[in-house]
């Protein structure tokens, strides 16, 4: 539980890094949005989807993936009522909200992985928590950058970013207390997170990353995917 808490908490480090940046250029903004989409695409396609199929079946993966994308579409329809999106700042606020939701959903099955791997061995549990913590920092950057561009209050950015990471702890509680959790449920949750994250990339991150500096956006996407491969 402690390792899970720490691995989730370090997501806030990503927000601190973003806050220390002053007046990011358009090229940096395009790169960071591309980087965020690259990390999310890499995690979804290289980790979540294969794990979903291996844990459950092709059908549970497809079902969870479709439901995750559909859920984010529903949120997409609802969010304009929250953020009017009539200014550039509103667009970035909406984008940050989208990413935060997707990352939070993705962190729950990661927490389950920490909880269940601990029962294989303490070493495996610690290694799993460390690897998740490392890429949570990158995820924190993904959440915080658009919120910062949208001129959200700094303390609120840190709070929202950290809370998305602490969704990992919820998953660990599930994994620790329900060791015999349904593999089908795990498969569905992994695919759900992948569907939600890829919807966010396609609908928000990639289009806006190319809006100001497409070469920087492409570089960010490539670097984000490379980081996901390394992780």
Which range does the strand content fall in?
A: under 5%
Uncertain stretches of 5 or more adjacent residues: none
Instruction: State the end-to-end CA separation.
Output: 22 Å
Rg over alpha carbons? 17 Å
Helix content: over 70%
In terms of topology, how is this protein built?
Elements: H1 2-9, H2 11-20, H3 26-55, H4 58-78, H5 88-117, H6 122-149, H7 154-165, H8 167-177, H9 183-209, H10 214-230
Characterize the structure shown.
With 231 residues, the protein is an all-alpha fold. Helix content is 84%, strand content 0%. The protein is globular and about 45 Å long. The two termini are 22 Å apart. It has one domain (2-8, 27-230). The protein is built from ten helices and no strands.
